[in-house]
Structures are given as C-alpha cells and as structure tokens.
Design goal:
The protein is α/β, with parallel strands linked by helices and 399 residues long. Strand 8, helix 7 and strand 9 form a beta-alpha-beta unit. The protein is built from 12 helices and 14 strands. Helix 2 crosses helix 9. The structure holds pyridoxal-5'-phosphate (PLP). Pyridoxal-5'-phosphate binds next to helix 3.
Amino acid sequence: MSSATFAFAPGLPPPAVRWNGRVKFDFTGGNNDPDRVPVDGLIAAAESVLKREGRMLAIYGVNQGPQGYRPLREFLAGKLKADAGIACIADDILLTSGSNPALDLINGALLARGDTVIIEEDCYQGTINRLTRIGVNIVGMPLDKDGMRMDALSNALETLKAKAVKPKFIYTIPTVQNPTATILPVARRQEMLRLSAAHGVPIVEDDCYADLTWSGQRPPAIYAMSEHGGVIHVGSFSKSIAPALRVGYLVAPWEVMSRALALKTDAGSGALEQMVLAEFCTRNFSKHVPDLRRGLRAKLETLMESLREHFGSTVEFSDTQGGIFLWVKLPDSVDTMKLYERALAAGVCINPGPQWSVNKERARSRLRLCFASATHEEINQGVATLAEVCRREFGVASA
Ligand SMILES: Cc1ncc(COP(=O)(O)O)c(C=O)c1O
C-alpha cells in the first residue's frame, strides 16, 4: 500500500532547521535584557486588567473591532504625539503581532514580483528576506554616520526614472538604524520627504528602536514631518518592553489601513498582550524606558571595552546613538559567514554581516553584535572567545 506524501507548494523558502537551544554566548537577534523586563509591573497589570475586562476575551478583538484593543491604541496616539510629533488618533493605528506582521501587511498591500524598493544598504535581515522572497528588485543606499545618504538617494531616484522605473516605496529605519545604529538628522528627513514628493515615491518608516536613544531625545518621525501624507509608520513594543509579547503597530492613512485590514487574516492579534501592555504602559512606560536605556548603554560600554581589549586595533566600530546592536568591522581576512560557523562551534553566536546587507562584498568582514541579552560577564567571555577564534582561524593578530 502506498503512503500519502506531502507535495509542497512551489517557491517556498528553504526549510527551517530545528532549534538546538541557545548557545552560551549569544550576540544574535533583536533580543532584550531579561533583567529589565518589568515582570512585577506586568503581573500587576495583568491582574488588574483581567479582573476588570477579562470577560471580554470571549469576543474576537475583545469587542473593539479589528484594529486592536482601544486603550493601547489611545496610549500609542498620546505617546507618538509626545515623542515623535505624530498627530494621529486611535483609529489611525492598527495593532499587529509584532511589527513584522505590519511589514507583511504593507508589502502585501503594495508589492508584486518585479517591483522596485529602495532600502538602506545595510538593513534589517527580515526586510531583505521578505523583499527577496516577494521577488522585488532591491536598490540599496549607502549610509554614513548620519544614516541613509541623500545624495545617493537622489541619484538612485534619477537613475531609476531615466529607466522608467518608479520604486514602490523607500523603506527606512531612520531612528537608530539596524544594524548601524545611526539616526537620520532632521535635515535629511526633510530632504527624503522632498525627494519622495518630487518622485511620487512613498516612504515606509520602521521606527522600532526609536525609544532607545541614549540621549532620550529623538528627531520627529518622518510621518510627522510629511505635509502631504505618503508615509506609513511602523513601531513595536519588542524593543521597549519585550519581543516575546508580540505587539507592534502601524500608523497609516485609511486608504492603506483599509487594504491592510482586508489582508489581515488572523482574526485579531493576541488581545491579552495588548491589554496588559495598555495597563502597564499608561502608568509606567515613561519611567521604565529610561531605566532600560541606562542598562543597555552600560552593556554597550562593556562590549566596546571588551572588543578593544581583545581585538585591539584590528577591530573597527563607532560608538552608537542608541539601540541594542554594534556593527563591527574585522580585518579583510575574516569572512564572517565562515566565522559564524567556527565561532558557533566555540559557543559564540554572531550575526554575519552579509545577512544584514545588500552589499555582500562590503559586509563580508562585518558582523552585528546584539549586546542586550547577554550579561556583562558573558559579553566579556564571549568577546574573548570570539577573538581567540579569529586569531586561530583567520590569523587576526592578538591585542
Ligand atoms: C528594523 C526592524 N523592524 C522590525 C523588526 C521586527 O520586530 P517585531 O516583529 O518583534 O516587532 C525588527 C526586529 O528585530 C527590526 O530590527
């Protein structure tokens, strides 16, 4: 008797590998600091909101429509106005299960195979992979210490125009960029908006690290600065509270929102997380975030010191303006895709540069280190081990 076999759909991404547990020294992912998750506050928030409104979990969307738990959207409208200058109301906000699904909805509403999208050359891997999978032509813009270079954007838009190509949008992470941790200054935001209007190309602003600037200040959101619309704003609680909660959002005009809602097929993102966050954040967000920032900054100091101690002048990096990542350059002899395998065998996990860039050759000897989730001790030991692997496998001189 023949057995039934699964015939998988064409065009799938490569199958996932099984998770083998976290390694000892993990510098990967966009994880947060376990010691800075406000556990007691979340327990108190969960108890009070469930006692008050728990019965409403019986109704899809807790009886508040498809855009998500209204008190959290109201909290966000107030926070976005105060911090980012965005004048929006709860009805302009859609809560999603993290910001990744928000990006999927935007891509789903706007993109088709063969379209062109402009992004920062070094960029969030999740975005590069999504666009690649859709079959989009990705055009990468170089960055400097102030983020995406506007001369390059201007040239790229002109070059594409000469070929009769109109990009679908410019995707940018302007406030603490991933992986370079740069912040796009106001003048460049203005210039991006000018170019966007001149070429009729909208902007998708991914702002998930914007709460984590060391100064506590941030420039106004591009969404806020636009006088003619044409911008979608995406954010998340993953970096400011906890990524495992899975709560993100998009802010968009109704013409986009209505398309995103029509594409959202999950019958509502988890309401319990949204309720707990609303309860917690309205009372505690403005106190919690500065504590988190201070803790992250201290870990970055440890990482930078440790890199100097163990790699000396063979390593290049710049102090950052916020966030949870350091983008590091090793000597040209180091291929970080190979380093990834060899470091893993020694118990250290890194993100190799080529996975976080569309300029694979330039990123070959670069890597991204997340310093948020490891302890200070683990950062020191992990960097020492990484330096030893670089010396042994790639001949990088000891400090
Ligand atoms: C730039 C950027 N956008 C979006 C995300 C997705 O985050 P989440 O889905 O947890 O909100 C990440 C995660 O690291 C990110 O770095």
